[in-house]
Specification:
Layout: H1 9-39, H2 43-53, H3 56-80, H4 83-119, H5 123-155, H6 160-181, H7 192-216, H8 232-263, H9 268-284, H10 286-304, H11 308-335, H12 337-342, H13 348-361, H14 365-381, H15 385-406, H16 414-443
């Protein structure tokens, strides 16, 4: 356990965010490795895997319910020096993870065809997306166990074991991808199915490694089978914080699904370009997301320890660092977006669409950094409803004009990206306003606090 209620806030943010970003980078490389080899198969496989991969937003939404609730409650318990409650929350999160994984597996297979028929450009794209998901869904189900264990560690201020496991799983996935997708060394390429299978095998190894860590090395929170019976009071505490956070990512799934729907008439090349651009953007967001991830345990421990001045300082430091990094990355996407996209494909139309997407959507980067940081503080304060409200505002501002624009003559794909920028601006303003209100309610007025 690492006590985050003492010492430099800036130092804590950097020391936790760097390994978190490294782990998230390698985690994202799952998708980049798959995308690199799948892109060699053509536009339809890329579009199919990209459309199918959008289901991960639902999975992330569900794991967020579990992860955010676990981090918040365990960080509060650590701040109060209540190890017993931290262990109870952790073991209940394991039980929820097992049930959630089973539901995700069954629901994923059930919803694959209806979802792909809604968003995919043609039958060939649907077939590729279905083949990918068939082998990837078991790994998706196991993500819940990995999130439960990683979130418990993050709540106690420990992030390096998770980073190491993420790196190892990506290395496994990287080694398996060319063998299973392209048939290197075997002469039996599985195509997109191999991409899904490689990721699933890597996730299985990751869950096993984290389990070994908890059995042998972790001392503050650990496996206690006697605490694996349902404790509904604990579930209520976790879901009160976690459900709105999960709703944020569910709305992100709706947002991305709307985008695929809006550009489907531009063909598979357009969807492939958007898919590649989105994956690149996810990688670019990693520094800001890593900072937001560590804001929750840092501010959460200080909130539990009743150190409001350090909670406020956590937001100021994290926002400054996150915005600074995203400004640099925004300049990169303004300068050379084609170079980023062309690494994954040689198709000129796919490159054109992907580069246009990155060039325009990069205006969202700074706003996204502030949104992520606000969300991290909402989690630390134990009230994630404001973050959900700000995300809902983005959908409303985006969806209604989008439906109108797509029906107009002269509709162009870049109109979608302009609407996205406007929606992000509204969400940023609302997130910041709601955070200031929550800080006044839960931390009191800065002027009333002792120096």
């Amino acid at each position: 356990m690492k006590d985050l209620t003492q010492g430099s806030i800036a130092g804590h943010v950097i020391s936790l965010a760097v390994p978190t970003a490294a782990g998230m980078l390698f985690q994202t490389l799952y998708f980049f490795v798959d995308l690199y080899f799948v892109a060699e198969l053509g536009d339809a496989p890329v579009a199919g895997v990209s459309a199918a991969g959008n289901i991960m937003f639902i999975v992330v939404a569900l794991t967020q319910v579990l992860g955010v609730g676990t981090v918040a409650l365990i960080s509060h318990a650590v701040g109060r020096k209540d190890q017993q409650d931290a262990n109870l929350v952790f073991n209940q999160s394991l039980l929820i993870a097992a049930l959630s994984g089973l539901i995700a597996l069954v629901g994923g297979y059930w919803m694959t065809n209806p979802y792909l028929r809604l968003v995919a450009a043609d039958e060939q794209t649907i077939a590729y997306g279905r083949a990918y998901l068939f082998w990837f869904l078991p790994g998706v189900a196991l993500q819940f166990a990995m999130v439960a264990m990683a979130s418990a560690l993050r709540g106690t201020g420990i992030v390096k074991p998770t980073m190491i496991v993420q790196v190892l799983t990506v290395l496994i996935n990287t080694a398996l991808a060319p063998v299973l997708i392209a048939g290197w060394g075997t002469g039996r390429p599985l195509g997109v199915a191999g991409a899904g299978l490689a990721s699933t095998i890597a996730i299985v190894v990751g869950v096993a490694l984290l389990s070994i860590y908890f059995f042998r090395l972790e001392k503050y929170v650990s496996f206690h089978p006697e605490q694996w019976q349902p404790r509904l009071a604990v579930w209520k505490r976790m879901f009160t914080i976690g459900l709105p956070a999960g709703g944020e990512f569910a709305l992100l799934f709706v947002y991305t699904g709307l985008t695929y729907w809006a550009i489907r008439d531009f063909g598979a090349a357009a969807q492939a370009g958007f898919g590649i651009g989105t994956r690149i953007m996810q990688g670019i967001f990693l520094p800001a997301m890593a900072i937001a991830f560590v804001v929750a345990p840092i501010a959460g421990q200080n909130f539990g320890a009743r150190r409001p001045e350090r909670v406020r300082e956590t937001f100021r430091v994290a926002a400054t660092q996150s915005v600074s990094v995203m400004l640099v990355l925004m300049v990169l996407c303004q300068w050379q977006p084609e170079a980023l996209v062309s690494f994954f494909t040689k198709d000129l139309e796919v490159i054109r669409v992907g580069a246009l997407f990155l060039h325009l959507i990069s205006w969202n980067f700074v706003m996204s950094a502030l949104i992520f940081t606000c969300s991290g503080v909402f989690q630390a304060l134990g009230n994630t409803v404001p973050a959900l409200l700000s995300s809902a505002s983005r959908i409303v501002v985006y969806a209604l004009p989008l439906m109108w624009v797509t029906a107009r003559p002269g509709y162009k794909i870049e109109h979608v990206w302009y609407l996205s920028i406007a929606a992000s601006a509204v969400q940023t303003a609302l997130s910041f306003t709601l955070l200031r209100k929550q800080m006044r309610l839960r931390l009191g007025s800065p002027a009333s606090q002792p120096a």
